[in-house]
Structures are given as structure tokens and as C-alpha cells.
Amino acid sequence: GQAAVLRDVKLLAFYLDSSGTAVIDLSAQPREIRASAGEELAAIYAVADTLTHNFEEIKQVRFLLDGKEAQTLAGHVDLTAAFRERTDLIRQQQ
Hints:
Blueprint: E1 10-16, E2 21-27, H1 37-54, E3 60-65, E4 68-69, H2 88-93
Parallel strand pairs: 2-3
Antiparallel strand pairs: 1-2, 3-4
């Protein structure tokens, strides 16, 4: 089997603002995360979908890396935008 994309990523902080945006601050040490575009997208939406589906006050999710805005986690998916629930990706992976 394949290793989980977020296996070595640690949660540094979690914030929820009044508009329903959850901000997830992750530590990506070591900085090199290897994943295909599909694996990276699935990992990001696994977090975003879990939070938006299970907590009605969370409408969307943003990601930080080591306290800073980051362009990407593994080089494929743009992290500068917020992520809303998108369960169709789960169905595609099965």
C-alpha cells in the first residue's frame, strides 16, 4: 500500500473565525511531501470534508504551513484558496 500523504504532518494550531472559516496550521517537517496531484487533492479534501461535514459551524477550511500561507503542500494543489466540502472526490477514489 501507499503511505498516507499527511503521515508526517503535525497539527500546530486550529482556529475558527466568526464567518465559519477553519484555519488549520500544519507543520510539514520534513518539508518534502511526495504525492501525486490526486493524492494531494484527496488528502486536503479528507481534512476539509471531515471538518465541514461534522461541524455545522465550519463552512470552509484554509491551510497554513508552519504558521504561514503556503502555495501548496506537495506541489500540485493551490492552498491559497479556502476549501469547501466536496464529497464527490471520495466517490472517485473508491
